[in-house]
Structure formats: C-alpha cells, structure tokens
Amino acid sequence: MRILITNDDGINAPGLEVLTEIANAIAGPDGEVWTVAPAFEQSGVAHCISYTHPMMIARLAPRRYAAEGSPADCVLAGIYDVLQGGRPDLVLSGVNRGNNAAENVLYSGTVGGAMEAALQGVPAIALSQFMGPETQDLEDPFEAARVHGADVVRRLLDRAIWDRDDYRLFYNVNFPPLPAARVKGMKVAAQGYRTDTFFGVEPHISPSGRKFLWITGGPQHKPTAPGTDVAVNLDGWISITPMRADLTAHDVLSDLEARLG
C-alpha cells in the first residue's frame, strides 16, 4: 500500500512522527509511506489552497518533503508532483495536537487535508488527539493516538463505507484526552456543537503604538450533545465521524423551494 501523510502542525510536529508510525504499520514492509507536510504550522487554515501565489517544496529525505503551503496544498503537491501522478492508496492527515471536533472541524487544516484527498478521489482519514488535564502530564501526550491509531485505521479500511460519489466520504477521528489504557473503544458520532463557545479577538498594543489582534478560542472541554463527537471523546471514546465536502443543507431544500415558489 502507498500512503501519503500530511498535517497542519508542520513537518517537525510530534504528531506527524506518531502518524508516520501509524502509516508504516498500515503500509507494511512492502508498502510506501510518503510525507508532504507544511514547512511551517498551518493550524486554522481549513481547506484553503495557495491559489494566488506559488509555494516552494523541498526534499528533506527519501519520501519526505516540506512545502510552504497548507495541508490541502501538500496533498496536491504529493499527488501531482512528488508522486508524479502515481496516486496514493490512502491519505492520512494528522495527528493533530488538539481536537478537531465540533465547530473546530470548520477551521481545521488537518480536516482540510483529508477533504482535499477525498475531492481527488483518494480514501482519506483525519486524525486528532484531544488534549486535556489528563494528557498534559503524560510522557507522551499522543499516547492514545499512538497506541490505538493503527487499529482504528485498519478497521476503517476493512469495514467502513468507501464510496465513489462526487463528494466522497472521508473520516474524521478524534482520540480522547486520556492515557491509552483508559480508552474505552470507538464510537461513530456526528459532528457536535459547543454552545456559547466561539472564536473571537483580543486586542494588544505594541510598543510602537500599533494595534494587533490575537484570535482567541473558547473552552474546549465543554461537551456537545449526547452521542456527538466531543461528548463521546470526553466520555473516553474514540470518535469516528463520516464527512463529505458537500455543504448543502439538504434537510431544508424542499421547504425552501416551497417557500420561494
């Protein structure tokens, strides 16, 4: 199996090293693992592509490249330049430091990389490690992902639905903020919504008198509705969320047509 891996935390991120272990376990001794990851951190870039300017790409080692672009850029670079059109069998994105559940999904470069792979017709999985009080003192805060990651990917490859629709399914995986031994297992969960948790800005004045704005996030450990991703994670389960890039609100199409007709 040929696997392409990327992330949004950057080529030197510890989560990418974890993902490399997972990918090597899946690919096996006769497989190939190719890395194309951002040269610098790209957290929060979602599914953006560098459409208006070029990006530099550099070979760091055999099958290991860094690109000055987003995770979606890296997937495009991997498929069309690094692999010279020799398409991968699977794209893995992560392992992100922090959860990509609930509203975070919409901003996540990790999810954006997997989404681009799906749009290119390649099976894809995004993986993220929820962080919290019980992971911060661990010698390896990615322990849950490192121990359980390969099994999750294998089970998805063996048993999940891999369609060929225009907007192909891809999968978003979040590991709970717990030591590996306390992970209860896997649960399929819808994307949730943290009520009253929003991104905002915090102004600061520089020594030169100029105003700068820092983006601020909301509490990450506020549960979502029962059975949805964050709630499942905080209860000790690995969440598996099937996703598509289609943003149409299909549930209101008929009603809207009737109202406007």
TrEMBL record:
It catalyses: a ribonucleoside 5'-phosphate + H2O = a ribonucleoside + phosphate. The keyword Hydrolase applies. It is an enzyme of class 3 (hydrolase). It is found in: Cytoplasm. Binds 1 divalent metal cation per subunit. The keyword Cytoplasm applies. A divalent metal cation binds at residues 8-9, 43, 96. Keywords: Cytoplasm, Hydrolase, Metal-binding, Nucleotide-binding. Its cofactor is a divalent metal cation. Residues 3-194 form the Survival protein SurE-like phosphatase/nucleotidase domain. GO terms for cellular component: cytoplasm. One of its GO terms (molecular function) is 5'-nucleotidase activity. Its EC number is 3.1.3.5. Nucleotidase that shows phosphatase activity on nucleoside 5'-monophosphates. PANTHER family: 5'-NUCLEOTIDASE SURE, PHOSPHATASE, PUTATIVE (AFU_ORTHOLOGUE AFUA_4G01070)-RELATED. NCBIfam families: PRK00346.1-4, PRK13931.1, surE. Belongs to the SurE nucleotidase family. This is 5'-nucleotidase SurE. The lineage of its organism: Bacteria, Pseudomonadati, Pseudomonadota, Alphaproteobacteria, Rhodobacterales.
